[in-house]
Every structure is written in structure tokens, then in C-alpha cells.
What we know:
- The protein is globular.
- The protein has 14 helices and 19 strands.
- It folds into 4 domains: 98 residues, 3-Layer(aba) Sandwich (Rossmann fold); 109 residues, Transcription Regulator spoIIAA, CATH 3.30.750; 106 residues, Transcription Regulator spoIIAA; 55 residues, CATH 2.40.50.
- Strand 18 and strand 19 form a beta hairpin.
- The strands form 6 sheets. The chain has a 5-stranded mixed barrel. A 4-stranded parallel β-sheet has the order 1-2-3-4, sandwiched between helices.
- Bound molecules: iron/sulfur cluster.
- The site of iron/sulfur cluster (SF4) has 10 residues, from helix 6.
Amino acid sequence: MNEYDSGVMKEMLVKNGFVYTDNPEIADIVIVNGCVVREKPEKKAIETLRYFKEKGKFTVAAGCVAQKDKQNLKDVADVVIGPMEYDILLDVMGKGGIYTDFADYRDRFYKYAQNRKDISFSEYVTIMTGCDNFCSYCVVPFTRGREKSRSIDDILAEVEHLVRMGVKEITLIGQNVNSYFYEGFEFKDLLEKVALIGPPRIRFTTSHPRDISIAVFDVIKRYSNIMPWLHLPLQTGSTRLLKEMKRGYTKEEFVYITRLARKIVPGMTISTDIMVAYPSETEEDFEQTIEVVKEIEFDYAYMFIYSPRKPSSAFYRYKKTLPRDVAVKRHRKLVDTVQEIVIKKRRKMIGKRYTLLIDGHSKKDPNVSRGKTEGNITVVVNKKLPAGTFVDVVITDVKGVTPFGNIIS
Length: 409
Ligand code: SF4
């Protein structure tokens, strides 16, 4: 979401006379659009602002870091602007000050988004902002505000523009895309309308297990340009802990949804987010997570150790986190379990044919490209191909968790 916001902010500024550089050392103004979901990126954003402020630059703190840390940023940022205030970005650039209200809509911001010119082969489109769920460990409802769905006309205009510009892949984004609702249109309706415009590949993230509906799986099945990939955060496999986290579903319900998704959309890949060492997580809770992971066999997972985030309710409720060695041990076991499953699944890809959308090159060897399957699995090919190219491959080998493919077209 920050990446999308940064792109639109860039468009706003460049269209109004600012000159962009990706080298902050030579810039007069440095904008840091920072994330606070975990402690490390939050600290890094603040350190970056301090570094450039000390160098005499005009600094702008944007994003969730601005919203969350507004008072502490006064010494390191000339402008502090929260994500729902980007409509006034141009007005405050020369002034300085703190702007962190939650505006009802980002009219001006979305107008720039709809006409942006500096685009890549793969682009995000924001469909909603904020979240009403208040999961116990999460700061998003405090930094992004309450849920606000974007006008369907604005979204479709942006998708049409991107398709005209030749974009190959569009990812609809929001903190909880499944709760999209605008003047009678639900997420499934929006998804179908986007599919009909015709971008070659459509994805969406993030889904919430409580809010996703069977109707969404039906739409995915009906349109070949909606990719058979679902990112569905599990967080924990313990129903007791899910309740404590205020996630709104049980372990059984989560397993049921994933089974249904794979049944309705054959070949559907499912990725997830899992947190270990929530302050009240017992060994038994953790083992239930391992059980669910084995049962669902996720295609890949992002796995984290709990990080206390002010002002989430868990931050105030638990004075202590679990001992670091316990957290690290559980994280290691979870990573190993997921890895074992993923390797097994990747090996099953050998001999099968996939269409890749090339998205980059190997850092070590520019003659080696990588691309994503329809199910969002990264595959390596031994040929230099431009980003944004579609190519058919047969998987010939798997090293670690990475499949390697031979080009067949
Ligand atoms: S649903 Fe996601 S964004 Fe919303 S509060 Fe929960 S974890 Fe945060």
C-alpha cells in the first residue's frame, strides 16, 4: 500500500513542478513513506529522516509512521503527513507542520492515481483503505483509520487507464479487500467488473478469512485473467488464541475456507501470514499452528515473531513478551515445517507447464530471469528476458524452494 501511495505522491509532485530523483543524497526534499507494522522498519524510517534532516534537507514523514509517531517526529521532519491527508500534500510542502486527520475521501489523490504516467508492467490499485477489525496486535486501524471503500467509478477508471497504458498485471489492494462495499457493489462485483476490462492478470490482497465469500471463488473460477492465488492470513492455528486476537474465525473455519477455495478453483495456490510467540501463546497453541500448517499445506508463508505495537490492545494488555529463545525456537520450527511442505510442493511442479510473467533478473547473473506463475510462485529461467514478458516454461528442476524452468515458447 505504501508503494502505491508513494507512486501517486510522486505523480502529484512531478505534475506540479517538482523534479524526481531516486538518489536522496542530491535531493532538496526527502520524503520517507514509512511502515510501522513491525518495529524494525519503523525505526529505520525515523533514522532515515534524522540522517537527512541533519544533512540540511527538507524532510517529509509520510505513511503510517507519520500517523503513529507524529509527536516524536517534530525534530526530524518538517512535514508530518498521514496517509489519509495526501490530498493536501501539495499545499503543505512549502509550509511544514503536522497533518494527520482522517479525511473522508482522497479525491485529489485518486485523480492523480487515475492518470499516472510513470508505470510498470505490474501495478497496484487501491480499492479501500483502513480497517474496522482492531485485531489485538495490529496498529492499522489507528494509522490508516476506519474502513473506507473507494468509489467504484474511480477504481474502474484507473484500471482502464492502466490497461490502455499496457499494464500486464493489476493487483487490487486494501487492508481487507473482502469488506469492499460501495453503493451496493461488493468485492465480488468489483472483481468481475475489473476482469471484464481485461488486464491480462488480476490479483488481490489482503483477504480476511472472516469476510471472504464463496461468491469470490466463483468469480475467480469464471475469469481466466483473475489469478488462482489467495493470500489468506492465518496468524495462528489455535482457536483460543484467534479469539484472543479478535480474528473472528476458528481454526476449523479457516481450514474449511481453504478447502473450499481449492475445490472451487482447481490449482488455487494459497499463501498466508503466521505470527508466533504472541504473549499468551502456549506450547499447545503453537503445536496447533503446526498442525494447521501441515493440514493446509500452504504454497508459501510469511512468518513473524510477535512484535508489540503501541497503541494496539495487546501492547497494553501484556506487560511482557515471551522469552526470546522460546520465540526464536518456535519461529525456526514453523519455518522448517513450512519449508518442508513447500519443497515437496515445488518438486511436484517438475515436468509441468506454466506461464510466467517475467518480473526481474537474478542479482548474481543478469542472464538469468525470474517470473511468476499464475499461482504467484517464482520460477527462474536461464535467459535474459525483459520484465513484463509472458513466457511458457516447463519446470525441469527445483533447488531449495526455487523451481527452474525451460522456455518452450
Ligand atoms: S484485519 Fe488486518 S489490518 Fe485489520 S486490524 Fe486485523 S491485522 Fe490489522
